[in-house]
Specification:
single chain, mainly alpha, two-stranded antiparallel ribbon
Length: 334
């Protein structure tokens, strides 16, 4: 493994690289016409270039040099997942092919970092880790629809996961690189969006958070692994409940829509900054809860996780009544 640089140097380099790559990509995307146009299923009002998260993906790829054991698997999985997103940003891929590339990337990471192999065994631990990776990649993709949302959530989740397992080899460096890369991208996306992450960015963020979770899990006791679900809990709750509701209405799950709670909040008058702050406040509280019970024996970690998800589900339902689905999202494909 390469000698580790000081954290402050890694942070500055990651921030600068992410910003400069995103800025350069913005000019190229505008010139080539790779933009998202406004529509009834989107929240933005002007054509905006996409794919700016390529800088975050590059930073994570370079930072993998300090991850230690499993860095090659991490790098391969990142290239497959973020590469699928980049290809989709440039020319839409069939959903099945996109999912296949995500699964291949997730399998590379999951094989190197199976979840609780001493308890589940390597094959089952790999399968559960694969679901965790592909799930988070898609959750970040689903919730990348409001300025600053996906980026701030990845930043906070990365720091929370790193604090849960401070002794995990390379975890702190990877978390700092991801957080700094998010900070480098944010000026172009928040509070006003001049550039979108695109699928390359949302895939890289979800993959990065999943990787941090799996590396952290390797240092936690089996009964504490539940805590890994707390830093990304607001993303999982919003995405999960929205998917369940859409499935119940027999709608196409991968079709673009405006039914996530954050989208409904913006549609009912909340600013992008206000929604971003609301979700960030939950994540800060969830990370604090995870750290508060991290040293406690079972069943406290499971109880804390269950409490957070029950509270989040109830809050989602209450706010959902305040912010009902927009009329244009009511069509059923059944």
């Amino acid at each position: 493994m390469n000698p580790m640089p000081p954290l402050w140097m890694l942070a500055i380099a990651s921030l600068a690289a992410s910003f400069l790559l995103a800025w350069g990509w913005r000019g190229w995307a505008l010139h080539r016409g790779h933009v998202d146009h406004p529509g009834e299923r989107r929240l933005h009002q002007v054509p905006t270039p996409r794919g700016g998260g390529i800088g975050i993906a590059v930073v994570l790829l370079l930072a993998s040099a300090w991850l230690g054991e499993g860095r090659e698997a991490f790098a391969l999985g990142l290239v497959l997942c973020a590469g699928a997103g980049l290809a989709d940003d440039l020319r839409p891929l069939p959903p099945a092919l996109k999912l296949l590339l995500q699964a291949a990337g997730g399998l590379s990471l999951a094989w190197a970092f199976p979840l609780l192999p001493e308890w589940l065994g390597h094959p089952l631990g790999t399968a559960v880790a694969l679901l965790f990776v592909v799930g988070l990649v898609n959750v970040w993709n689903f919730l990348d629809g409001s300025n600053g949302m996906a980026t701030t959530q990845a930043l906070l989740a990365a720091l929370g996961l790193a604090l849960l397992a401070p002794s995990a080899p390379g975890l702190g460096w990877l978390a700092v690189a991801l957080a700094a890369a998010c900070l480098g991208f944010l000026p172009l996306n928040f509070p006003r969006a001049r550039l979108f992450l695109g699928d390359v960015g949302s895939h890289a963020l979800g993959y990065g958070v999943a990787a941090l979770g799996l590396v952290a899990a390797s240092q936690l006791e089996a009964g504490q692994a539940w805590l890994l679900l707390l830093p990304p809990s607001v993303m999982l709750i919003d995405a999960g409940l929205t998917l369940v509701a859409r499935a119940g209405r027999r709608q196409v799950l991968w079709q673009a829509h405006r039914e996530h709670l954050y989208q409904r909040a913006v549609a009912h008058g909340w600013s992008h900054a206000g929604v971003c702050a609301l979700y960030a406040a939950w994540t800060v509280a969830a990370c604090a809860l995870a750290l508060a019970v991290a040293g406690l024996a079972p069943p406290w970690p499971l109880a804390a996780c269950a409490l957070a998800y029950v509270a989040g589900t109830l809050l989602h339902a209450a706010l959902g009544r305040r912010w009902p689905r927009p009329g244009e999202t009511l069509e059923s494909v059944g």
